[in-house]
Design brief:
The chain is α+β, with helices and mostly antiparallel strands. The chain has one domain (37-145, 152-195). It has five helices and nine strands; from the N terminus they run ααββββαβαββββα. It has a nine-stranded antiparallel β-sheet with strand order 4-3-2-1-6-7-8-9-5, with no helix packed on it. Strand 3 and strand 4 form a beta hairpin. The longest helix has 20 residues, at 5-24. The chain is elongated and about 85 Å long.
Length: 216
């Protein structure tokens, strides 16, 4: 089979493009690990939430057996609601990077991930499993939010996109992740405790008797 010059040039161009793509293509997505904040919740036995305001209470959750005990300035060793703690751990374990938002300290204040922001540290004993600063969030309108189209179907409208900005301790980079994370870690101590059902008094347990009617 004979090739003319144009065919050879085209083949060479295709090969060059292929090589360049393999070397550089997709690296914008590959500059970070999407599972950068991966966490094995089964290994966590100490969870600390540092407040982002002064005054503010530091929340310390310590696992003892199947229970989580909460310690704060106002609470000492009381049982925490296991569902709430599980929700916080699952929130951390589900963090996936959507994009790299910033690479330097000069952007920390803009994304509210500086040293004074809310911080969450998960440990196994003295070993740090995850140490992350949780910054601000923003809500972006969906691309198909325009409703002036006569064929617009409200049931096909996408939900707004909610992103939060976070930073690993010791790292200058700021990442965008999905969800409104600050709400999961900003509860008051009373909202985190295991509340017992209200005890009934003897008067409450006495059945109500209806007066008997006399048939005349």
């Amino acid at each position: 089979m004979k090739f003319n010059n144009k065919t050879l040039i085209a083949l060479v161009a295709v090969l060059v493009v292929a090589v360049l793509y393999l070397q550089f293509g997709g690296k914008k997505e590959g500059t970070f690990n999407k599972n950068l904040f991966a966490l094995d919740t089964a290994k966590v036995n100490l969870l600390t939430v540092y407040p982002n305001a002064t005054p503010g209470e530091q929340l310390i959750f310590l696992r003892e057996g199947t229970d989580w005990l909460l310690n704060t300035d106002s609470v000492s060793g009381q049982k925490a609601d296991p569902g709430v703690v599980k929700g916080m751990l699952n929130t951390l374990a589900g963090l996936q990077v959507k994009r790299l938002a910033a690479t330097g300290k000069d952007k920390w204040a803009a994304y509210e991930v500086d040293e004074n922001t809310r911080r969450v540290v998960a440990k196994n004993g003295n070993k740090v499993l995850l140490d992350v600063y949780i910054g601000k969030f923003n809500i972006a309108k969906p691309e198909n939010s325009v409703v002036d189209d006569e064929n617009f179907n409200p049931y096909q409208m996408q939900r707004p996109s909610v992103n939060s900005y976070i930073r690993l301790a010791g790292d200058d980079k700021v990442y965008a992740v999905e969800g409104m994370l600050s709400t999961a870690f900003s509860r008051k101590p009373d909202e985190l405790l295991m509340h017992q059902p209200a005890a009934t008094t003897p008067a409450d347990s006495i059945p109500t008797q209806m007066p008997q009617q006399t048939i005349k």
